[in-house]
Amino acid sequence: MEFFVISLLNGISYGLLLFLLSSGLTLIFSMMGVLNFAHASFYMLGAYFAYAIASKIGFWPALVLAPLLIVVVGALVERFGLRTVHKYGHVAELLFTFGLAYLIEEAVKLVWGQSAVPYRIPQELDGPLFQVFSSVFPKYRAFMMLVSVLMLVTMYLVLTRTRIGLVIQAALTHPQMVEALGHNVQRVFMMVFAGGAALAGIAGVIGGNAFVTSPSMAASVGTIVFVVAVVGGMGSLAGAFIASLLIGLLQTFAVTIDSSLADLFGLIGLHVTSATPLSSVWKLSVSQMAPVMPYLLMVVMMIVRPRGLMGTREG
Q1: Within a domain: 314
Q2: DSSP structural state of residue 308
């Protein structure tokens, strides 16, 4: 029971952080059709900006100011980068965002160095929130969950209950009609891209000190973000939410299981020896396989349901 409860809470908190990170990518793709390879770089910038601000004036101002800085960076990238290459097609957009990811990573190394920086959890959130038998659940994990849920609710309300949200949804399907009604569709695109980047930045602010803030952090989560997008269905926020929780729980539970397929075979009387074909594969424990579990899930999803859990387009 103790193992299940703590692993469940850790999996949900990690899944919610993944959703906060992937929701921006999903929103940008559904609105603009741009698969932003530099999206995880905004996650990294959010963590580094928060570290720089927190070291001067504290974590709480950093929680507000760092995402605002990411909004500015995202707006500039869309206005002077993506909008310029948009006329050359999606391949040009992909190449631009791919190159941008490398530029941001090199810029981070130049400013903050190649080693991890000491971006720490604020003292008031450091420590256990409650205890389940001999295991404790940290306050900061609960804080991460709270921020992620608040951003999820805010995003839903903005998109469904506000005028700008209705304009964004209309521009998604009928951009020419929206422009005919007097709205600046290009400005809407810029706002969506900046907002999506800010969501990644917020994930960096609350995730950078929970994990590690280093120049490699974008690469470490970048592929997982795309796995979430594919499993959930490209362009589907609801699908991204379900996929994020699924992958978060899958990885969290997997890393704690030391059993292997060889052990399972042993229960039914089949013993794996060194002479057994692919014996090294059968002896791999679930915990050893945990890093590749999301990718295996993606492969299965693409075979069984290519459009993803809640996607609307095949492929």
Answers
A1: no
A2: -
